[in-house]
Amino acid sequence: MPTKLDSHIVYKTYAGLRVPSVTTILDILAKPALIPWAYNLGKEGKDMRATQDSAMGTGTLLHYLIACHFKEEKPEQSYLDEFSKSQHNYCDNCMLKFYEWTNGKRIVPLFIEKPLVSEVFQYGGTPDLVLEIDGLAVVLYDIKSSNGIYEDYWYQLAGYDGLLKEYTEQFLLIDEYHILRFGKDESLDFEDKKKTNLVEYWEVFRRLREIYEIQKQLRRK
To answer: Which of 62, 111, 199, 220 lies at a C-alpha separation of 20 to 30 Å from 96?
Structure first.
């Protein structure tokens, strides 16, 4: 199975020290969009935790299908059977959008969900995709199934960029950073949004890593 599908990946340094993931570090940020979302679920009589679990499963399946596409692998039926019919229906529609997006592009995969660990900043993560597009640009992509593109998505990409720079000793230069967003509602809108520089987002992420460590030390007191 692709490594990123396991939400319990343990990232360790060469010395065996367990380090936090990019997403764990970002969890210290407030997420104001979750409040109205949870409120609306309550009004509809829906269980928030069950809805979150279902959404995470859908995102996991979507990542898996896209990874299989670029690896030129057939999805394992035993794994596909773990997901519900509604999750498959959603992902089938997303993949139609995805195939439209790939159409006409010459795409060379460079990294596909490769777990990485920073020895310098002591954190780990698994970037979704690094692709060479039309021989012109090396692009770091993050795949999201959501109703919007939020600021913390770029912090997440910056964290992955830091991992890639350290892993490749900066020989792999990223030209562009993209969020590929698949909408969650019935319209299933699709969005490809890019930035060419994440320097300031990296500064935020780096400081969040420091804050995460401080908070961990405070909890031990």
So the answer is: 111
